[in-house]
C-alpha cells in the first residue's frame, strides 16, 4: 500500500481501477489551522496515455498496480490488427491498430520493443525514443532551397509514416526519428 508521502517521479499507483504514473507533484501546506495538507500531482493514465492534474489529501492511500514490462517483437500487420510475439514465452497476440495509436506508424516487421502488461493483459507498447528508419521517397526541392540549409521537405519512411526532413536528403538514406514527436533528428551514415 502506497501513500502520498511515497510519491516521487515515475512511481505507479492505482486510481479508480486504472494504473497511473506520477509525472510530477507538489505539496501544499495551507496557512489556516485545521486545514489538510494537499498533494497536487500530474499523473498519466498508462492505459489511455492521457495526462491529468489530480489533488489528494496528505496521507491518502493507494494500491500498487500489477504492472509488468516484457520484450516483444512486432511480427506483421493484418488489416487493423497488429501481431506481436512475447520473446520470453513465444506466445503471439494481436492488438487493434487504434489501441496502439501513433506508435503503429513506426513499426517494422521484426522490430523489438516493450509491452506493458496490467493484470496479465497487454495495455500498451513502449518504443525506444529514437529509431533508425529508411526514407523511401521525398518531395522534390525547389531550386535554391538548399542555400539556407534549413528548408524542410516531406518524406515517406519505410513504414509509411510521413515526416519533414532537410532538403539535402534523398530517397534510400537512413535517418534517426524521434518517436515521441515524430521529428527528424539526424542523417545516419553507414
Provide a quick synopsis of the model.
With 190 residues, this protein is an all-beta fold. It has 1 helix and 16 strands.
Write the layout of secondary structure elements.
Layout: E1 2-3, E2 12-15, E3 18-28, E4 38-45, E5 51-57, E6 61-62, E7 67-78, E8 81-86, E9 92-96, H1 97-100, E10 112-118, E11 121-126, E12 130-138, E13 152-157, E14 162-166, E15 174-178, E16 183-188
Antiparallel strand pairs: 1-6, 2-3, 3-4, 4-5, 7-8, 7-10, 8-9, 10-11, 12-13, 12-15, 13-14, 15-16
DSSP summary: helix tally: 1
Through-space gap between termini: 51 Å
Task: Name the beta content range.
Answer: over 45%
CATH topology type of the largest domain: SH3 type barrels
Mind telling me the C-alpha Rg?
22 Å
Describe the global form: flat
- Overall mean pLDDT stands at 86
| Quaternary class | single chain
Sketch the major β-sheet. 5 strands, antiparallel
Would you report the number of β strands?
A: 16
Amino acid at each position: 500500500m502506497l501513500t502520498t508521502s511515497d510519491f516521487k517521479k515515475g512511481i505507479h499507483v492505482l486510481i479508480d481501477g486504472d494504473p497511473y504514473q506520477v509525472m510530477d507533484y507538489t505539496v501544499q501546506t495551507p496557512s489556516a489551522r485545521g486545514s489538510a495538507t494537499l498533494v497536487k500531482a500530474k499523473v498519466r493514465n498508462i492505459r489511455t496515455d492521457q495526462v491529468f492534474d489530480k489533488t489528494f489529501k496528505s496521507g491518502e492511500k493507494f494500491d500498487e498496480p500489477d504492472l509488468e514490462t516484457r520484450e516483444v517483437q512486432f511480427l506483421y500487420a493484418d488489416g487493423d490488427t497488429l501481431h506481436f510475439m512475447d520473446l520470453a514465452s513465444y506466445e503471439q497476440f494481436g492488438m487493434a491498430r487504434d489501441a496502439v495509436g501513433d506508435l503503429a506508424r513506426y513499426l517494422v516487421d521484426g522490430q523489438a520493443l516493450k509491452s506493458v502488461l496490467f493484470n496479465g493483459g497487454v495495455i500498451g507498447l513502449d518504443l525506444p525514443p529514437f529509431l533508425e528508419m529508411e526514407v523511401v521517397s521525398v518531395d522534390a526541392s525547389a531550386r535554391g532551397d538548399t542555400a539556407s540549409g534549413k528548408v524542410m521537405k516531406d518524406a515517406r519512411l519505410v513504414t509509411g509514416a510521413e515526416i519533414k526532413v532537410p532538403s539535402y536528403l534523398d530517397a534510400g538514406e537512413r535517418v534517426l526519428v524521434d518517436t515521441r514527436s515524430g521529428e527528424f533528428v539526424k542523417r545516419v551514415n553507414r
